[in-house]
Automatic annotation (TrEMBL):
Source organism of the structure: Gordonia rhizosphera NBRC 16068
One cellular-component annotation, GO: cytosol
Domain of life according to the entry: Bacteria
Keywords linked to the UniProt accession: DNA-binding
Protein name: Putative transcriptional regulator
CDD domains referenced in this protein's UniProt entry, alphabetically: HTH_XRE (cd00093)
GO MF annotations in UniProt: DNA binding; DNA-binding transcription factor activity
PROSITE patterns: HTH_CROC1
Keyword Translocase: no
HTH cro/C1-type domain sequence ranges: 14-68
Length: 174
């Protein structure tokens, strides 16, 4: 899929879910804390949203990131200091969703992820490097082979001074 077609597909998914939720463009923009014009351009496929923006939109819509980004393995999203590639999405019979990502945390800063829905749990297995991650103010350190877990219904951060790779799972209850 070309970048333009992917951008248009993401915009269409956002517009459809927003309409299903009965939210106006203005209301979703307010809840996501992004400009109404920016949201309009994203929905029209005229603007390429960052991973941070997609997370900001997914939260108020009450959907996992892949509901906006798409579920195709290999699809990538990026934000400042973080790159994520979808490895797998599993939909459970009870309506829960588990998303599995290959994560690259870039050195040089901290990536803050906005809160996800209630009961959403993140697990990070560090593959290479060292990572400091978790709920803002309660972050913990993990090296290669170690895992971190937290409930991500509050802002949470990812930091690596030299860079890190990890497998991230996000489990959203049904």
């Amino acid at each position: 899929m070309t970048i333009e077609k992917h951008r248009q597909a993401v915009g269409a998914r956002i517009a459809t879910i927003r309409a299903e939720r009965g939210l106006s463009l203005s209301e979703l923009a307010r809840r996501a804390r992004i400009g109404k014009g920016s949201l309009s351009e994203i929905e029209a496929g005229q603007r390429n949203p960052t991973l941070d923006t997609l997370y900001a939109i997914a939260g108020p819509l009450g959907v996992p990131l892949t509901a906006l980004l798409g579920e195709e393995s290999g699809t990538e999203g990026s934000g400042e200091f973080l790159r994520a590639q979808i490895l797998h999405v599993e939909h459970h019979p009870d309506g829960a969703t588990t998303e599995v990502f290959w994560l690259r945390v870039l050195p040089g800063g901290t990536r803050t992820s906005p809160a996800h829905g209630p009961g959403v749990v993140e697990n990070v297995l560090v593959v290479t490097g060292e990572l400091v991650a978790g709920r803002a103010g309660a972050e913990r350190h993990a090296g290669a082979g170690q895992t971190l877990q937290w409930i991500s219904d509050a802002d949470h951060t990812y930091t690596s001074t030299a860079g890190a790779t990890a497998v991230l799972t996000i489990h959203s209850p049904g």
